[in-house]
Amino acid sequence: MGNSHILELNDYRMIIALDEPFLPPPPASPTERSALVRTLIDYLKQHGTVGRLGLRAEQIPASEDTEGQRRLLRALLTIREPQPLPENFHRAMDALLEQERAARPAVIAAELPRIADLMSDSAYSGAASVALWQGGHHDARCGCDRECRE
């Protein structure tokens, strides 16, 4: 590639450690959740993200409303400039997301009803083996005995 600002694919692969398995951190405890949310918001406030909302950092009050603060964190993450974040931010965010994932009920893919179970008169040839599910892929589990993420 002629442009020096574009990474070669193999260089990018090494930078993001594409070939290394992702090992999620242990989930934060439910009692740590609000502290993690506040820590992440504080970092974004200190680094100018709040200004993109037309506000000053001091206009964003500290709150005991964890769900409201979580929505604020989501908004700030959505509007922040695309620039690297420090490793400790990533660790805190990963722990928060793992805690939230662990708190949601798991959907076992093998237990989902198949089309044939729901519509016995279906003419679809794959009806006995195809299940339709509306939900986030993070909630799905394969149903095996291992702690896998299939």
Question: Summarize this, please?
Answer:
With 150 residues, the protein is an all-alpha fold. It has helices at residues 9-15, 33-46, 66-79, 87-103, 115-118; strands at 107-108, 140-141.
Give a structural overview.
The structure is a single chain. The chain is built from five helices and two strands. The radius of gyration is 21 Å and the shape is extended. With 150 residues, it is an all-alpha fold. The protein has two domains: 1-103, no CATH class; 106-150, no CATH class. The two termini are 36 Å apart. β1, α5 and β2 form a beta-alpha-beta unit. α2 (33-46) runs antiparallel to α4. The longest helix is centred in the middle third of the chain and has 17 residues, at 87-103. It has a two-stranded parallel sheet with strand order 1-2. The protein has helices at residues 9-15, 33-46, 66-79, 87-103, 115-118; strands at residues 107-108, 140-141.
Strand-helix topology:
Elements: H1 9-15, H2 33-46, H3 66-79, H4 87-103, E1 107-108, H5 115-118, E2 140-141
Parallel strand pairs: 1-2
Helix pairs in contact: 2-3, 2-4
List keywords for this structure.
150 residues, mainly alpha, 5 helices, 2 strands, 37% helix, extended
How many H/I helices?
Answer: 5
Largest beta sheet: strand ordering? 1-2
Strand fraction: under 5%
Average pLDDT works out at 86
Number of domains: 2
Major sheet summary line: 2 strands, parallel
Shape estimate: extended
The span between the termini is 36 Å
Class computed from helices, strands and strand pairing: mainly alpha
Reading the helices and strands in chain order gives HHHHEHE
Indicate the radius of gyration in whole angstroms.
21 Å
Number of strands: 2
Poorly predicted runs: none
Question: Residue share in helices?
Answer: 25-40%
